[in-house]
């Protein structure tokens, strides 16, 4: 796996050129009427001291637990602005004592059993893209230690049911790898959150994520058929059914649980045929209220565009999609079986 930045989004080899840095500094200075934009150097892992781990790796788990310095840095924070600010300032007072890399569900059961017996907190970790503190490893003084449990090795599409358009998928697979695998069967999950490249299926389910292509199938809920979750007291697995009215759905407990109840290990997911016909356009508005009204009318029309996203003038400007004078509505339509009219 490529080495991820512990101080920002993406991978260590993905950095801006000097020209790109200068262009962004000029943009920020102009937008906020600044004479200059102070900058910080990229922090180096070897320049950051971390507290000594409070717990020792047991011999039975030495193949799946790590004290690696860089991994502890990578698993301390998510990717919110406060997270990145603290990382850039080299502030890592509460890193995980250990990082776990289970190879299968049995490893996760063993890790949770050992942690439960020794009063060690366990924080499930998918891609680390959380922006609401979901993977932060500061848990207070009630625990003897904390483990960040990384699911990167549970990254396979285990089974595809092409007749029902569904697949059994492990929770640690990242968005691009998942779509690449489904493409072999001309299928797609069709779920694209903003963190798509750096987030996992398990993370999407645990956070009840929403995707950009989302006027019909908005949240990950719409795609989940069944889930498997390891808890401190056992494995919870829901049944894969086309529909059920037999009481509360157990999947509703899992979706959006934020890792509180256990570790999601796999799920059966509903799929769609991969679209081959596409049409898109952008519409500019001088008046934001009119832009909002147009967006509402489209969403209520039953047309179900693949994408319907409104950028206000400032957001459009900051994303190089305009000069800051117009509000921008982005529309796109897709189909797997028929051409689209213009």
UniProtKB/TrEMBL annotation:
InterPro entries: Alkyl-DHAP_Synthase, FAD-bd_PCMH, FAD-bd_PCMH-like_sf, FAD-bd_PCMH_sub2, Oxid_FAD_bind_N
A biological-process GO annotation: lipid biosynthetic process
FAD-binding PCMH-type domain sequence ranges: 92-274
A GO MF term: FAD binding
Positions of transmembrane segments: none
A Pfam family of this chain: FAD_binding_4
Family membership noted in the UniProt record: Belongs to the FAD-binding oxidoreductase/transferase type 4 family.
PANTHER family: ALKYLDIHYDROXYACETONEPHOSPHATE SYNTHASE, PEROXISOMAL
Protein's recorded name: FAD-binding PCMH-type domain-containing protein
Organism of provenance: marine metagenome
Lineage: unclassified sequences, metagenomes, ecological metagenomes
């Amino acid at each position: 796996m490529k080495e991820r930045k512990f101080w920002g989004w993406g991978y260590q080899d993905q950095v801006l050129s000097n020209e790109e840095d200068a262009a962004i500094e000029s943009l920020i200075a102009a937008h906020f009427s600044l004479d200059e934009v102070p900058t910080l150097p990229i922090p180096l892992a070897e320049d950051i001291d971390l507290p000594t781990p409070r717990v020792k790796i047991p011999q039975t788990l030495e193949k799946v637990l790590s004290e690696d310095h860089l991994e502890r840095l990578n698993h301390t924070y998510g990717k919110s602005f406060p997270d990145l600010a603290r990382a850039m300032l080299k502030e890592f007072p509460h890193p995980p004592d250990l990082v776990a890399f289970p190879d299968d569900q049995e490893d996760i059961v063993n890790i949770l059993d050992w942690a439960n017996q020794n009063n060690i907190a366990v924080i499930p970790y998918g891609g680390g893209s959380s922006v609401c503190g979901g993977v932060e490893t500061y848990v207070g003084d009630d625990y003897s230690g904390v483990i960040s449990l990384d699911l990167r090795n549970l990254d396979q599409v285990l089974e595809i049911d092409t007749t029902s358009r569904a697949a059994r998928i492990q929770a640690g697979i990242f968005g691009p790898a998942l779509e690449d695998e489904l493409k072999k069967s001309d299928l797609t999950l069709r779920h694209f959150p903003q963190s798509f490249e750096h987030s996992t299926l398990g993370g999407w389910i645990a956070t009840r994520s929403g995707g950009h292509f989302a006027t019909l199938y908005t949240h990950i809920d719409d795609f989940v058929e069944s889930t498997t979750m390891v808890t401190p007291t056992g494995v919870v697995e829901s049944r894969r059914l086309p529909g059920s009215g037999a009481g509360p759905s157990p999947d509703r407990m899992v979706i959006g649980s934020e890792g509180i109840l256990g570790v999601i290990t796999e799920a059966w997911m509903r799929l769609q045929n991969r679209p081959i016909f596409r049409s898109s356009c952008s519409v500019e508005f001088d008046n934001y209220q009119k832009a909002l009204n147009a967006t509402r009318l489209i969403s209520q029309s039953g047309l179900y565009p693949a994408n319907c996203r409104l950028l206000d003038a400032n957001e459009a400007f900051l994303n190089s999609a305009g000069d800051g004078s117009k509000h921008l509505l982005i529309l796109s339509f897709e189909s797997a079986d028929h051409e689209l009219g213009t």
